[in-house]
């Protein structure tokens, strides 16, 4: 068909749009993805009709769906739809702002050309909702910008025949020559306005503006080069001479008033809601995590109010302003992530994140120390620095799935799409052993697996098979590259094999993962625990639904040397959890439904009582890790989403979880529970796997690419939880 890639993608858009139309036609309220697909695909159909302009379609896009035709959260999530279409005069971008803006849409427009029946509006019973994903509960009070700095008010006149706009951090003395004001008084000053905003002077305008002193080392760089250097009153005569020689507008303003920011006269302040809309929430503000009932409160904001790092046209991170001049590449960051809300096991805070040589080098306040207060010595933004603007975003450590069956390469894309950036497990591809166990047995297979994953932008670690009562063979797989050993009941997790495997692992200082014996063939759970001999071990399926001593493997959660995990098929316990598992288990573990013992083996694993207990044990912290068991009962793309489903269910079921250091029992944030649950797929599996110095947290010296960037309103989809 001679389709270019973007045209092939539009075919997928059309399929999604037509699916959304069919659902709308039968009276279903559309979700976020369906609403976008329907509006965008219909716009393209109208483009193809050839009788409408870009402006016409921007208006039509707002008419198709109303609030009652979409799920309650969609109007809050969907603020813009953009799609390119080919008109008679070429490809044009159609932007629909606020596409869900009425109670009811024009369903004839929404279904135009589909030949589907137009449903009655009575089929849609929408209701208003007060809660929406990512909502922020703001602190009361106002934030004063540039507090305690010297300030003054000047009159400025634009003598040009063009508008002139001056940004917040531009050195005012260096401003356009056609602006006439007292440049003597403006020496070492900038506008006292929110960082990243500007003041615009139309031709002939005369305005009074408030200036504040620059911060930091008080060094002027850039602009027109008039006042280059440290702010020094002894240099002012020379600076004024340059102003005269270069024809810069200047007029003494003896009526200028001076004072300090904070005394009320010169203050520029914003409320928390306005501040959040510009830079993200700050200390004391609370964010709803997706559509859960969990609220994260910002414990600390490293920003210096008024000196926030904002990138863009006319913004802060420009030469001589937020971006320093005169610093070599070795002294400045490679990349800075600005104004990020960090949710980590270490805390919930807002900060800039500095990246150097692929590692997080510092967390705090970034910028230009020549003009900004509080800039971390390792967080200088310079000419060699890239910027990732994270205001309005949540940054977390990339997720770690430490229970992966490497059956097919497609699981990597599924993992990355969900926020998982590190995979630990084993396998050789679609072999029966791999489908059931996470083991890469042979050195040659280890080599091939390491080579075959080189092309993927993800961290991988493979575990060798540890099921042998003698050490021979284990050292070879470790030397071939195994980062750990796996004991699985399908290979025989006997006490002799356990003891031998742990002994070899201790000699090489690597981890051991174990899937214990459901059959209780060589012993019961107490015999397996005895075989550990107080050595540290990671127990898979600690709840028992995925395997392990029936019916009491859950006892391992109380053993001090055991690091327990469970997998996401049973996270959380809901109305459909038990029903899906029997057939899933029979397929994954190569069992025969015609053999009564195989059926009994499978049924012994699926116990509603222990699955329900698993919820509580996770909330108590007794189970440390949630992983996937990918394609061998689990879903690699749902580790993170099911972790937060569990956290939300526990909030609803058990109420707020107070932290060990809570001084006020009336605190209404969920920070302790949030930190506990995010640890289950970040730092805890990193510690278990032995690489917590590199990944698993947002801390100095960890690897920076392993961060997820989530909008504050990212949905964790906790619907239909029992």
From TrEMBL:
One of its GO terms (molecular function) is urease activity. Carbamylation allows a single lysine to coordinate two nickel ions. Substrate binds at residue 488. In the C-terminal section; belongs to the metallo-dependent hydrolases superfamily. Urease alpha subunit family. This is urease. Its cofactor is Ni cation. Homohexamer. Other oligomeric forms may exist depending on pH and presence of salts. Keywords: Hydrolase, Metal-binding, Nickel. It comes from the Eukaryota. GO terms for cellular component: urease complex. Urea hydrolase involved in nitrogen recycling from ureide, purine, and arginine catabolism. Its EC number is 3.5.1.5. Pfam families: Amidohydro_1, Urease_alpha, Urease_beta, Urease_gamma. Binds 2 nickel ions per subunit. Ni(2+) 2 binds at residues 486, 515, 541. Pathway: Nitrogen metabolism; urea degradation; CO(2) and NH(3) from urea (urease route): step 1/1. Residues 398-700 form the Urease domain. The modification N6-carboxylysine is found at residue 486. Ni(2+) 1 binds at residues 403, 405, 486, 629. It comes from Triticum turgidum subsp. durum (Durum wheat).
